[in-house]
Amino acid sequence: MNWVLGILGLFIGVILSGTNRWLFGGVVGFLIPYLLWSLVELRRRIDAQDRELQEMHLRLLTPAMPSPAAAPRPATPAPAETPAQTPAAAAAAETPAPVRATGGPPPIPAMPTPRSPSADPLPPGLDEASIAAARARFAERAGSPLSSSATGGAGAMPPPRPQAPPRPRAPAEPGPLEKFAGSIKAWFTEGNVPVKIGVLVLFAGVAAALRYAAAEGYFTFPVAMRFICAGVAGLLALAFGFRERTSRPAFGLSLQGGGIGILLLTVFGAYKMYGLLDPMPAFAMIVVLVGGAAFLSVLQKNMPLAVLGFLGGYLAPVLINSGSNNYIGLFSYYAVLNAAVFAISWKQSWRLLNLMGFAFTFGVGSVWGAKNYRPEMFSTVEPFLILFFVFYVVIGLLYVIRQTEHRRPWVDGTLVFGTPMVAFPLQAVLLKDDRIGLAFSALVVAIVYAGLVFYLRRRRDERLLTEAYGALALGFATLAIPLAFSAGTTATLWALEGAGVAWLGIRQNRTFPWISGLLLQLLAAGSYVISLFANTGDYLSPDNLLLNPSWLGAAILAFSGVLLAFIHDRHRPVRGLSALLFLWGMGWWFLAAITQVDPAEEIVGLWRYFMLYLTATIAIAAALRHLLSWLRLNWFVGVSAIFGLLMGLYAQEEFGAPLNAPAVAMWALYGAVLIAALWGGREQPSRSLALSHILGLWTLALLATLQLEDFSDAQGLAQGWRFVADLAPVGLLTLGLWRAPPWFGWPRAEAFEGYALGWFGLAIPLLLFAFGVGLFLEGSAAPLPYLPLLNPLELGLMALAAMLYGKLLRTKSAFSGMRGAWPFVGFVFVSLAVLRTVHHWHGEPWGPDILDSGFTQTCLTVVWSLLGVGAWILGSRRVDRGLWMGGAVLLGIVLFKLALVDRLYLGNVTGIVSCLVVGLLLVGVGYIAPSPPKIEEGESA
């Protein structure tokens, strides 16, 4: 049935969806009825199974009743147990009659009697009361005369009497969903089905025709009449919704909101789309609608209604824009709207309404200012900016002190911090050429917030808001100072001041100074960045490397961040904050190094400068780590080791090879300092030192690899030698760290085992990848002649394979299960070695075209046959069935190759040789090992 409905739905969906989206409409039309009917069928089956399970459960709980045919005379029931009955009497009542010694019909089974305390224990989870209740329910549903009232007790049975056949139980009444599904099924399966389906198809056709007529514009009405009808519908909805506000509040409010929305859209469409209204009448209508929405929302205490109305009000100047640039009218209108929001905030704590007004006011104002503001407008724009700032400062205050929704302390961060952070940059734009005026503005804002702090100090439950205003007061007071001076001069002072203020706040357990000190770090960083881009390069002369405002400013920011991290670690641990502050300081320390690129290149050279900087960083961090007993300083060592690895690549570009004469001394100094730092922390469980050790090993491998590669180029060595040179450093280090970690893992050999995965987890995949790449190299051995298996490439591959086999497959590792794949690797290696031999000795081109040669195919056939025969014979001699079967499979492949590939070359010598060799080998092995080794008893096949 579901398929019939699905196909019908597919037909209807295709008709209704038109020509462009017929596929989508057909799929949706098929899936909806198909899935709905499947759900109905599933629900029906689940209900039937549930009823069957309930009946089975009741039958298991109720004892079997004797049928009338098996009982020729009624048995005398045992007397019902009374509260005075003793356990002995109950036991006597339950004693069965003696068994008859003579033949005859079997005795009539006695009816169950009430259980006594001396009877067998009930199964777990059951008691007398639950069994009696289950009996009663089952008897009632099955039409039996069994009832608890007739038993004389909760657990007693009625006197046995002949039972009439059970009355048929009436089927359960189907539910509404089943009735609906049944009616649909009957409609489609009974009566004149073709006519019914035809009606549905006709309905779909008519709907599609109407849709087409509407799209072609056959139904036309005057535009003014359309808007009048829409406006009347909106008014009716608004009036009816207001009427239903008491009897059905949710329905009434929704209808009022919809009516206001319809009216707003009608006015906008009549003005903007068709020009039926002039700007001023349209604007006036929207103002009336907004005012009405505000009045209705306050009257009914409904925020969504207010939001809808004010949304239309704020959008009205944007949507109804005549292009006159009457900014005074615009800001005056917004001042009225914000005054209404301010008035509502006295009575209602509607945060969404406050945020919407804040966003539209400053957002539209900022967009207008970016496009149209000119300095001569300052006297008319500044009062509006001040008014809007005061509005939303007070609105943010009222929202906190008047609402009761949230537990105290509570702060509306968007308005409390967003208002000054948005308004003051706008003030800076207005006063961009007047630094003193901007400094005075910052001081006035600081005084305003200080006054709010003084006001809120009497409200003990607003401590968080008090601290927020105090932070803003301190911030703007601090901001007023550098506005009269250069940004670079004040950056360092702010950073040090912030560290000191935060330290005092921590020591005195005061939140406000602590937060203020942290925020001052951000202000100091911003001031430093401004100074960095504002100044020219005059102060970066070659005579003052590091000793210039650029490096000193960043270094002091780094010092302040690290100092704050140390203070928090020792005196006020906050999860994640110490690490964040330390990363902040470390970032500024390495940024300070980047600012010295130009003078460093002229004085010592850029590569030497960075190496000296990294070496000094590691030495300072190691010394302070020992002095302060602060392991977090190891982060500097780890990051420096990362940059040291990158400096190896830079040295390759700078000197041609990283270990050439100009760089050797610097690498030696860097390596000595890094080893000293690792040795000093050899007993510390530090992840940073583990990372530094691993990176130091990779740096050594990288330097050796690049140096050997340069040597190979200089000597003109061929590809096979270059392959060995590229892999030797990583391979030898991997082998040493595996077989002799005390030597190769120094200076942290004892701790190396805990993080050895950092090396092997990257080295092993790299070596596996190199092995895979090396298999397909042509492997020239110049200046030496090429010898099969005795050339640098294949010797290196075999050594690499032996090490990987021992490390991965012979030891316990995640790759131990891949032992069965190792013979396949050997087969590929031997096959490619044959191809390399053909290439070097017979002159065939190296590449996929080499397989087109009959000589190549013959060589592969012969070698594969020899391998198969050897495995066959060796397996037979060793009684190794798996090895014997491997040889048999390989010989089978050879036979297929002869039939499919080598037969193309049967007209020449190579094809004939292939066949002869394979034939002879098979004959010989058939004589030596004709059958697989027998499986011993108990051995798995």
UniProtKB/TrEMBL annotation:
<feature type="transmembrane region" description="Helical">
    <location>
        <begin position="280"/>
        <end position="298"/>
    </location>
</feature>
<feature type="transmembrane region" description="Helical">
    <location>
        <begin position="752"/>
        <end position="777"/>
    </location>
</feature>
<feature type="transmembrane region" description="Helical">
    <location>
        <begin position="327"/>
        <end position="345"/>
    </location>
</feature>
<feature type="transmembrane region" description="Helical">
    <location>
        <begin position="352"/>
        <end position="371"/>
    </location>
</feature>
<feature type="transmembrane region" description="Helical">
    <location>
        <begin position="219"/>
        <end position="241"/>
    </location>
</feature>
<feature type="transmembrane region" description="Helical">
    <location>
        <begin position="468"/>
        <end position="485"/>
    </location>
</feature>
<dbReference type="InterPro" id="IPR014600">
    <property type="entry name" value="UCP035905_mem"/>
</dbReference>
<feature type="transmembrane region" description="Helical">
    <location>
        <begin position="882"/>
        <end position="900"/>
    </location>
</feature>
<feature type="transmembrane region" description="Helical">
    <location>
        <begin position="821"/>
        <end position="842"/>
    </location>
</feature>
<keyword id="KW-0812">Transmembrane</keyword>
<feature type="compositionally biased region" description="Low complexity">
    <location>
        <begin position="142"/>
        <end position="151"/>
    </location>
</feature>
<protein>
    <recommendedName>
        <fullName>DUF2339 domain-containing protein</fullName>
    </recommendedName>
</protein>
<feature type="transmembrane region" description="Helical">
    <location>
        <begin position="383"/>
        <end position="401"/>
    </location>
</feature>
<feature type="transmembrane region" description="Helical">
    <location>
        <begin position="789"/>
        <end position="809"/>
    </location>
</feature>
<feature type="transmembrane region" description="Helical">
    <location>
        <begin position="906"/>
        <end position="929"/>
    </location>
</feature>
<feature type="transmembrane region" description="Helical">
    <location>
        <begin position="413"/>
        <end position="430"/>
    </location>
</feature>
<feature type="transmembrane region" description="Helical">
    <location>
        <begin position="305"/>
        <end position="321"/>
    </location>
</feature>
<feature type="compositionally biased region" description="Pro residues">
    <location>
        <begin position="104"/>
        <end position="124"/>
    </location>
</feature>
<keyword id="KW-1133">Transmembrane helix</keyword>
<feature type="transmembrane region" description="Helical">
    <location>
        <begin position="854"/>
        <end position="875"/>
    </location>
</feature>
<feature type="compositionally biased region" description="Pro residues">
    <location>
        <begin position="157"/>
        <end position="174"/>
    </location>
</feature>
<keyword id="KW-0472">Membrane</keyword>
<feature type="transmembrane region" description="Helical">
    <location>
        <begin position="688"/>
        <end position="708"/>
    </location>
</feature>
<feature type="transmembrane region" description="Helical">
    <location>
        <begin position="253"/>
        <end position="274"/>
    </location>
</feature>
<feature type="transmembrane region" description="Helical">
    <location>
        <begin position="549"/>
        <end position="567"/>
    </location>
</feature>
<feature type="transmembrane region" description="Helical">
    <location>
        <begin position="606"/>
        <end position="624"/>
    </location>
</feature>
<dbReference type="Pfam" id="PF10101">
    <property type="entry name" value="DUF2339"/>
</dbReference>
<feature type="compositionally biased region" description="Pro residues">
    <location>
        <begin position="65"/>
        <end position="77"/>
    </location>
</feature>
<feature type="transmembrane region" description="Helical">
    <location>
        <begin position="193"/>
        <end position="213"/>
    </location>
</feature>
<feature type="transmembrane region" description="Helical">
    <location>
        <begin position="6"/>
        <end position="36"/>
    </location>
</feature>
<dbReference type="InterPro" id="IPR019286">
    <property type="entry name" value="DUF2339_TM"/>
</dbReference>
<feature type="transmembrane region" description="Helical">
    <location>
        <begin position="633"/>
        <end position="651"/>
    </location>
</feature>
<feature type="transmembrane region" description="Helical">
    <location>
        <begin position="720"/>
        <end position="740"/>
    </location>
</feature>
<feature type="compositionally biased region" description="Low complexity">
    <location>
        <begin position="78"/>
        <end position="102"/>
    </location>
</feature>
<feature type="transmembrane region" description="Helical">
    <location>
        <begin position="518"/>
        <end position="537"/>
    </location>
</feature>
<feature type="region of interest" description="Disordered">
    <location>
        <begin position="142"/>
        <end position="176"/>
    </location>
</feature>
<feature type="transmembrane region" description="Helical">
    <location>
        <begin position="574"/>
        <end position="594"/>
    </location>
</feature>
<feature type="transmembrane region" description="Helical">
    <location>
        <begin position="491"/>
        <end position="506"/>
    </location>
</feature>
<feature type="transmembrane region" description="Helical">
    <location>
        <begin position="436"/>
        <end position="456"/>
    </location>
</feature>
<feature type="region of interest" description="Disordered">
    <location>
        <begin position="64"/>
        <end position="126"/>
    </location>
</feature>
<feature type="transmembrane region" description="Helical">
    <location>
        <begin position="663"/>
        <end position="681"/>
    </location>
</feature>
